[in-house]
Amino acid sequence: MTAESAFVPWLPVSEAAAGRRLAVKDVIDVAGLPTGAGHPLWRETHPVPGRDAEAVARLRSAGFTVIGKTHTDELAYSLAGTNAHYGIPENPAAPGHLPGGSSSGSGSAVAANLADLALGTDTAGSIRVPASYTSLIGFRPTHSRAPRSGVVPLAPSFDTPGLITRDPFLLRTAATALLDPPANRAPGFERVLVPADLPVGAEVRNAVMDGARVLGVEVEEEPLFGAAEGWERARAAFAVVQGAEAWACHGAWIRRERPRFGPGVAARFAAAEAISADEHAEARETLREVADLLHRVLRATVVALPTTPGPAPRLGAAPADRLAVVRLTCLAPIAGAPALSLPALTAGGLPLGLSLTASPGLDECLLDLAAQQPRRLPGRGGP
After folding, report:
1. Which residues are catalytic?
2. How many CB atoms lie within 10 A of CB 153?
3. Is 255 helix (H, G, I), strand (E, B) or coil?
């Protein structure tokens, strides 16, 4: 498929005559255009919105021009970039490889220079994974600071609009328009922590250490959870709460309309339907414990991780291990914290993101860290 297949098929791709070009993920309302949520039956059974989502309205007010809506994985419940109905957008940064999801078209459109900025959503990594696979900057803001009205939900405890671009200065401008003001003046951070117990291979672990040292902040290495079981415990609890909320949001529609899903999304919704109230409550308690731990660690600290355990899988090959991906990507949503994926690493000659997570509210500090040193990040050009 061509790069233009990043855009949903019922909308033309056009170059904006003026202003910076904004592509919008197809779970976010744009006035007068259908919101399809990655599924033709969703589009058929929901009215065309009469007003922009608040996130779109804020970016339009800042001068961005909406040029189209981009593909998403079905109901945003995937991280691969595949869609059983609309296919797979191209990955211009790694041809022949998956683009990542669920903001798959958003990453593809920016990587192909069809858009300057893409507005997507991130629940379990759906901004950061495509940014990692397509060698772009992906920003997940503090959960409480980004408006969610006019956005198809997946798991409201974790959902947030986010941004993908190649330009850290444009990202700073867009984030200023998108986010509510910070509650108070942030003190910043003093160190970068690379977890000694990272659940990844040696090549990726070493790449993270090298990337963290480039940032110009003191780098320390110490365990985060202390054992692999801690990472898996957090992931498993996150999956239960995400699934329970996804079924609460969409279960009635699924039972009524009986949509056809691709195998991965179908399996996740089937598992979500089976989650009991006791399982949900137990998982929420686990997440409270994990969030408390992360909030303690993140004081004056940025945690550096690989955005994904490895680079984008090849088309037609075995998909990435979703569990291994979510072990890394679930930490920011559990903490309600901002996270930034930078195109700073490679593995096997392919792009791999360096993910930086800060304490909730420190979005501007993360964005400034990226903007202060674009020339020093491996694989990055200047402004």
Report:
1. 25, 102, 126
2. 19
3. helix
Would you mind telling me the total number of residues written for the chain in this entry? 383
- Provide the Cα torsion 122, 125, 88, 59; round to 10°: 30
The yes-or-no verdict on residue 321 having pLDDT over 50 is: yes
Question: How confident is the prediction for the chain on average, in pLDDT?
Answer: 92
- Cβ contact 221:209 at 8 Å: yes
Confirm if 295 and 143 have CB atoms less than 8 A apart. Answer: no
More confident residue, 334 or 189: 334
Q: Is the peptide bond before 355 cis (omega within 30 degrees of 0)?
A: no
- Residue 382 pLDDT exceeds 70: no
Closest CA to 25 of 93, 94, 95, 123: 123
Statement: the pTM of the whole predicted model exceeds 0.85: yes
- Domains, the chain, ordered by start: 1-383 (3.90.1300.10)
C-beta neighbour count of 181 within 10 angstroms: 7
For residue 195, what are the β-bridge partners?
A: 222
Amino acid at 245: E
Question: Which residues are registered as beta bridge partners of 24?
Answer: 69, 119
